[in-house]
């Protein structure tokens, strides 16, 4: 897909002096609930009211959405507040119903993005539409799969496109519900700078106490907007209760978030510098996380050596590692001196961990 500037035109049409904010409940539960939340959001930075009508669940038996009835509630909210409305579509039948109820923004969920066949059916159903279509990243960290979905929609003559970063599933337990893997949306942004990029901090976080930090990181990385799950009584929400915030919290969050505005050459420079520094921060966090995992493995090796009464330092193994890392470092533009210093420090920390275990 070529870099097409018309992809950003729809975002400019909003004429906002702040990031685009899409907010509303994870799920439409009742007409009263949808309308109450809409009216609490209508005079805030939120331009778009979101609500899940069909809820894909990992396992059956959970609340799976109210279905098409909820589209009428969204329509009524739109009439009463003037907000645009948005919902997730997972197949061509959802698309048909959403279009019939004049939904302004349709987004494609992470579970749907993984299937090129379903994406193609949705693209065919939307062919030529002037609706805004947003594509969430696939569940797994696969940039080509994400871009493939965008390309299928673009080929179907859908020009009002954007992407939503909602994090990626992982078997490992982290502080996030879905690991952000910021380097993936950064790469997407570098390749297609005119493709609007929106962050879904609710699904990345899985809990409301870190939503602000995720939003700030996204804005520091020049994301164009936020999709935040918002409920007037989040603790009693029918789905994803832990990751929703109140409209009052959203209003305060938008006040507290720092959004850089470029007004001259110096500001442009500062913006670019801060964005690059945030990218470094993201990578640094990943480095610390990886080093922590490496030391846990070293601990396991220490336990095994203690059990078998084996010496900590294995010189042959250490020289093999060092040789391989020097070669790999050279391929990535890293000097031999740097690789030696870094891996000697890592090796010493690994020895320290194993000594503690053996001497305990």
Automatic annotation (TrEMBL):
Q: Which domain of life is it from?
A: Bacteria
Give the molecular function GO annotations.
chorismate mutase activity; transferase activity
Q: Which residues form the Chorismate mutase domain?
A: 267-358
Q: Which InterPro entries match?
A: Aldolase_TIM (IPR013785), Chorismate_II_sf (IPR036263), Class-I_DAHP_synthase (IPR052899), CM_dom_sf (IPR036979), CM_II_prokaryot (IPR002701), DAHP1/KDSA (IPR006218)
This entry's Enzyme Commission designation comes to: 5.4.99.5
Q: What class of enzyme is it?
A: isomerase
Q: Which GO terms describe its biological process?
A: chorismate metabolic process
| UniProt xrefs under Pfam families | CM_2 (PF01817), DAHP_synth_1 (PF00793)
Keywords tagged on the record: Transferase
Q: What is this protein called?
A: chorismate mutase
| Organism this protein belongs to | Tenacibaculum holothuriorum
Organism ancestry: Bacteria, Pseudomonadati, Bacteroidota, Flavobacteriia, Flavobacteriales
């Amino acid at each position: 897909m070529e870099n097409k500037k018309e992809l950003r035109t729809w975002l400019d049409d909003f004429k906002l002096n702040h990031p685009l904010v899409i907010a509303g409940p994870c799920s439409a539960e009742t007409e009263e609930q949808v309308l109450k939340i809409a009216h609490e959001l209508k005079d805030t930075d939120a331009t778009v009211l979101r609500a899940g009508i069909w809820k894909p669940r990992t396992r059956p038996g959970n609340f799976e959405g109210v279905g098409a009835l909820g589209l009428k509630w969204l329509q009524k909210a739109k009439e009463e507040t003037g907000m645009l409305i948005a919902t997730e579509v997972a197949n061509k039948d959802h698309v048909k119903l959403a279009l019939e109820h004049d939904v302004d923004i349709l987004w494609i969920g992470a579970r749907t993005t993984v299937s090129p066949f379903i994406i193609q059916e949705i693209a065919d159903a939307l062919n030529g539409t002037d609706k805004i279509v947003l594509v969430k990243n696939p569940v797994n960290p696969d940039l080509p799969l994400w871009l493939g979905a965008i390309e299928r929609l673009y080929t179907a003559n859908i020009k009002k496109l954007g992407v939503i970063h909602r994090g990626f599933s992982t078997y490992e337990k982290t502080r996030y519900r879905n690991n952000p893997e910021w380097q993936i949306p950064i790469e997407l942004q570098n390749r297609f700078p005119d493709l609007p990029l929106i962050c879904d901090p609710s699904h990345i976080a899985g809990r409301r106490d870190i939503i602000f930090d995720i939003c700030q990181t996204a804005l520091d990385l020049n994301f164009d907007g936020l999709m935040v799950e918002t409920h007037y009584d989040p603790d009693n929400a029918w789905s994803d209760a832990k990751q929703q915030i109140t409209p009052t919290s959203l209003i305060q969050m938008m006040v507290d978030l720092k959004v850089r505005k470029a007004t001259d050459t110096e500001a442009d420079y500062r913006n670019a510098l801060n964005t690059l520094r945030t990218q470094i921060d993201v990578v640094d966090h990943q480095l610390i996380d990886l080093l922590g995992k490496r030391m846990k493995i070293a601990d396991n090796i220490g336990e095994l050596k203690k059990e078998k009464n084996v010496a900590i330092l294995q010189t042959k193994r250490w020289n093999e590692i060092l040789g391989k890392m020097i070669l790999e470092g050279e391929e990535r533009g890293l000097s031999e001196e740097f690789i030696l210093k870094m891996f000697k420090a890592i090796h010493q920390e690994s020895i320290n961990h194993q000594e503690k275990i053996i001497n305990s």
